């Protein structure tokens, strides 16, 4: 009777590891390494002053870059929300927009359309999308003109000329 080698059992297989960016060292890890290095140095041969100052400068630079990254991310978030508010003013307005349409396999042409804006949203990547009254989402860069909604006006508005006015003497 054949036997199965125990190394093939599921519980004996190595567990897969996922790389989620946790392999990167942060400022806390850098500081722990520096402290460990200082604690374990040879008292008869301490760390060179210049080397210690260089490591402290690297730590300071790392901390400043981390703080600057957080500040820039907050700035980007504020800009995105302001863009959404700014584009929300388009709701209910008539817009003229452009799209590139294939004429054949070698040529394209620009096609202009006019629609009324129904909604505005921000995509996960920060892109502003605009919903038109034909249920089509377009990119904000496709807009070419914005105008107030055209009211239902009569085709031939009454004109006022001198012959139609009554004159009293």
From TrEMBL:
Pfam families linked: FlgD
Region listing for Disordered, in residue ranges: 1-23, 147-169
Biological process terms in GO annotation: bacterial-type flagellum organization
Keywords of the record: Bacterial flagellum biogenesis, Cell projection, Cilium, Flagellum
Family: Belongs to the FlgD family.
Protein name according to UniProt: Flagellar hook assembly protein FlgD
Organism of derivation: Alkalihalophilus pseudofirmus (Bacillus pseudofirmus)
């Amino acid at each position: 009777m054949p036997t199965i080698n125990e190394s093939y059992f599921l519980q004996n297989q190595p567990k897969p590891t996922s790389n989620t960016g946790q392999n990167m060292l942060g400022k806390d890890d850098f500081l722990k390494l520096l402290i460990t290095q200082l604690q374990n140095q040879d008292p008869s041969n301490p760390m060179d002053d210049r080397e210690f100052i260089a490591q402290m400068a690297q730590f300071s630079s790392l901390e400043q870059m981390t703080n600057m990254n957080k500040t820039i991310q907050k700035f980007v978030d504020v800009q995105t929300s302001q863009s959404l508010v700014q584009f929300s003013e388009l709701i209910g307005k008539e817009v003229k927009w452009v799209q590139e349409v294939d004429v054949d396999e070698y040529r394209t042409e620009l096609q202009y359309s006019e629609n009324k804006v129904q909604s505005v949203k921000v995509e996960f990547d920060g892109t502003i999308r605009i919903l038109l009254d034909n249920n089509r989402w377009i990119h904000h860069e496709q807009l070419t003109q914005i105008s107030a909604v055209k009211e239902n006006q009569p085709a031939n508005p009454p004109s006022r000329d001198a012959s139609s006015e009554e004159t009293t003497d």
